[in-house]
Amino acid sequence: MTYSTSSPSRAHRTRSPSTRPRCTTRAPNASSSIHRSDSPRNRASTCSATGCCPSCAARDTDRRHWPVPDHEIGIGLAGSLLPQTYRDIARRAEDAGFDAITVFGDLMFSPPALVLHTMAEVTRSIRLGVAAYTPWTQHPVEIAGQIAYLDLMSSGRAFYGVVRGAWMDKLALDQSDALAAVEDTVAIVSALLAGNGSGHVGKVYSMSPNTRLHFEPHRPRVPLLIGSWSPRLARIAGRLADELQAGGCANPAMVKVLADMAGTTGGRPGICLNAIAVVDEDRKAARAAARTAVAPYFDVVARFDPTVTVDPELQERVHRYCAAGDFTQAGRLIPDDLLGLFAFSGTPADVAEHAASILDAGAQRVEFDTPFGLTPESGIALLCDEVIGRIRAHL
Fold first, then answer.
1. Distance between CA 344 and CA 388 in Å, rounded?
2. 278: Cβ–Cβ under 8 A, 6 or more apart, which residues?
3. I need a labelling partner for 162 at 20 to 30 A (CA). Which of 101, 224, 285, 372 fits?
4. How many CB atoms lie within 10 A of CB 322?
5. Of 299, 371, 297, 293, residue with least CA distance to 75
6. pLDDT tens, residue by residue, 61-105
7. Counting runs of H as helices and runs of E as strands, what totals does the chain give?
8. pLDDT class for 170, splitting at 50, 70, 90?
9. How many CB atoms lie within 10 A of CB 301?
10. Is-contact 372 275, C-beta < 8 A?
11. What is the CB neighbour count within 10 angstroms for residue 202?
């Protein structure tokens, strides 16, 4: 599939690499199973980026958060890896120039905030986000505490997401008041971070006045992402969020759809698309692996893309195989034209061109999600060594 890299609005957007300072101060690294190049930045012993980390704080005590560039390139992870692998990936991604890492809050994976704590200890500049919390499995006060602490650990690099949540049927949870639950969650987290004791009276969650965290947050406000394909929740994101994200989406046409649903003005909320990525020099093998990886997400979100018509019979067959846990067979049913709307797959050139088309369509961030490649290590290596450079060159 060919992805257009032109856009009517392209001339009106700044086309520059990330301007976020890149810290070169880092404690000696533990041995890594993922190769890292011996770049001048890695060899530097002192940091030249103003105020970017605790060791620079004396030079810029007023800096409380990281600027977000016009366009971000990120990676997303499910919490199913070993702690050392997370450290290795975080170091590798930061050194390659990725702007953000998100860790998913999908049911039964490792808790995302804990994974990001691991990453915060070995990075100095990359933004770290939980994408995302659901109000049904975490109370808002717990979300506030976790995010406030992550923001402390990362010196102001945290952001967090709130979503309605998928696969909640496995827990027999009633999600009938999902929109109210999301709004209540955002209100309570915001009040606790601000420390204003305002309390909140909500439909699903409430909090008494003068309820405060017993530690000082790094910032009184942490950037908020709301994840949804829903027009109603997108409108809420338009009022409350810094970003609106469509998870499992690699369709450039959805950028404008989401912006229109949110009522985006002045670039806020920024639009983020993230989807599984499988990059390998063997295009055929990459796409076969991507089909298996994308099947459970295709089963959940394909019906919500208004720019494409999915055969109901195909959707039902994919659903049956996914329900039985046979994601390989489910993925084999997904044709090439649909695969390219819900996943990044192919050679480094294929994946870079696809991602660039999403940024050209006006997205603030494009995000590559696990499994990355035929193995996580090979995929991360290609994303860092070949894909991100091609995207930056295009921008």
1. 13
2. 286, 287, 289, 290, 293, 343, 344, 345, 371, 372, 373, 374, 379
3. 372
4. 19
5. 371
6. 333 455 677 899 999 998 788 999 999 999 999 999 999 999 998
7. 14, 9
8. low
9. 18
10. no
11. 16
- The residue to which tokens 């759809």 are assigned: 257
Residue the block writes with tokens 């109370």: 139
DSSP 3-state assignment of 229?
coil
- Both tokens of 218, joined, read 């790094």
DSSP codes of every residue in 333-349: TS-HHHHHHHEEEESHH
Q: What domains does the chain contain, in order, with CATH numbers?
A: 68-282+343-394 (3.20.20.30)
Can you tell me which residue has the tokens 């070169």? 24
Q: The pTM is what?
A: 0.82
- In tens, the pLDDT along 219-275 reads 999 999 999 999 999 999 999 999 999 999 999 999 999 999 999 887 889 999 999
- What's the rounded mean pLDDT across residues 37-47? 34
pLDDT over 70 (residue 314)? yes
Q: Are 66 and 157 in contact (CB under 8 A)?
A: yes
Question: Residue 246 corresponds to which tokens in the numbers above?
Answer: 């469509």
152-188 per-residue burial string, b: 16 or more CB within 10 A, e: under 16 = bbbbbbbbbbbbbbbebeeeeeeeeebbebbbbbbbb
Look-up: residue for tokens 């890492």? 101
